[in-house]
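Lecture 7 notes. Example A: sequence first, then its structure tokens.
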Amino acid sequence: MSQHHEPLRKRRRFDDDEPRPRGRARIDLSALDERGGADPDGPPEGDRWSTWDGADHGPAPRPDWVVTDHAAVDTDLGALKSGKEADVGLLERAVPGTDRRALMAVKRYRTAEHRMFHRDAGYLEGRRVRRSRETRAMAHRTAFGRDLLAGQWAGAEFAALSRLWSDGVPVPYPVQCTGTELLMEFVGDADGTAAPRLAQCRPDRDELCDLWHQLVDALLGLARRGLAHGDLSAYNVLVHRGPDRSPRLVLIDLPQVVDVVTNPRGPEFLARDVARIGEWFTARGLPPEVGQPGTLLPELLVAAGAATSQPEW
């Protein structure tokens, strides 16, 4: 008696069924990755490999603390300051397995998707880019133009710091610039404590006079190169105390540095700088015989070669 077998029906496959592997089962290699899914191209520690290679570098001779090793690793250690145009943080660059490490301030300028620069027009007079398309994009504030502006501000600050540091003006050493990111000397203590701004300080009479003389020397250093800070106030000056506890004044935030002669508003910016910073010193009891903002401005204009165009302030 013959036996009849019903043909086997194929099981219908539904869309949510898991596909069955064909042939040998695949081995899950992720379990062998000791770094638990980390970026295979990233460093074994820290946030990224050093960006030294390919960046624009600061002037020579370089300070000994600058880490140039290609095997170095960068680690973000937190925010120091948040502004309208850029954010400043603390970054450590170190070579794993060695004692080579340095703290730096990292300044990242905001691009098209962030808030616009609120001070462009007056400061950018006299600055031009070569390509007419870029000039139009910046003028019309397109997304591309705003990205260009962010890069231009970073490049302008890097160039200003490089020039001024080489000339002995008290500014942070500019380590490198890449696009809209600027790395520079961290002005503060080895434990990451940033130096206070001048606005936070309460100097006694002797320290006030010392800081005033340091400020005058710094502003004269700018003026002899035909420059003004452009946005000077007690918030853009740091006061760092070294091992001997004596105060050292450092100028910061220089992306808008102004050419006093070629910029039509240059003398006006210089006068405003002197008025703002002078008001802080006089309000804290700067003796008139030590210094007066009213006599400082003509001196700076002469040094800058713009004495004939002194504005009324």
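Example B, a different protein, same format:
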Amino acid sequence: MAELITVDDPDDPRLSDYIGLTDVELRRRREPAEGLFIAEGEKVIRRARQTGYEMRSMLLSAKWVDVMRDVIDEVPAPVYAVAPELAERVTGYHVHRGALASMQRKPLPAADELLATARRVVVMESVNDHTNIGAIFRSAAALGMDAVLLSPDCADPLYRRSVKVSMGAVFSVPYARLEAWPKGLEAVREAGFRLLALTPDAKATSIDEAAPHRLERVALMLGAEGDGLSTRALMAADEWVRIPMAHGVDSLNVGAAAAVAFYAVATGRPEN
């Protein structure tokens, strides 16, 4: 059973995991280095625990203590009860959902481990917007993608904003980082995957004609919002595919495009 501790000092060192949550650069450096991430909101905290992440501590406003009572009773980590004003001073923002948890990261698997058992893989290049990362993971989970591979410069899927937007789906879809880019794509191809680069380029094949759902193994490549996939990534692909557009629209937001493409990849997929 967790220990419920009332804290009224924003400088209390026991709250250090929650300091400056709005300072993106600080948290980007600190969280992976210290092996932690922040889960925000009741549903996300519960999903993190259900998928095996160990809790370091919880930070709750008073009205959330009863809501999270079962979790408090189950975990050995300390639970800090604070006033909403104090939570805002510590974190740097008004904690609307009233519940935060500091969770312990798990070691990331190697890319080849994921490729050994996956059939439908997402490959992201330089996607640095945390909202887009979260949206893509949520769609990947919902539409049956098996794994996600990230280029070395992609944003952290376990950053608080990514986790929140994904509604905890980042915990459900296994992911790994490719150590070299785009050289790491060679290992994806060698594992039997056909590399499909999603691009609005007119020379690309319509995703309907490409029929990725009929392929044995597919790796769908996505680039950053605005810039899209780099020339190097496009040249490394086996085929370029596009989503047909109407009414003069040239492209979709990468999060929306990902959802459409994932549906095309997974539709008609044979059951294992």
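Note on Example B: The mean pLDDT is 94. Residues 110 and 171 are 16 Å apart (CA to CA).
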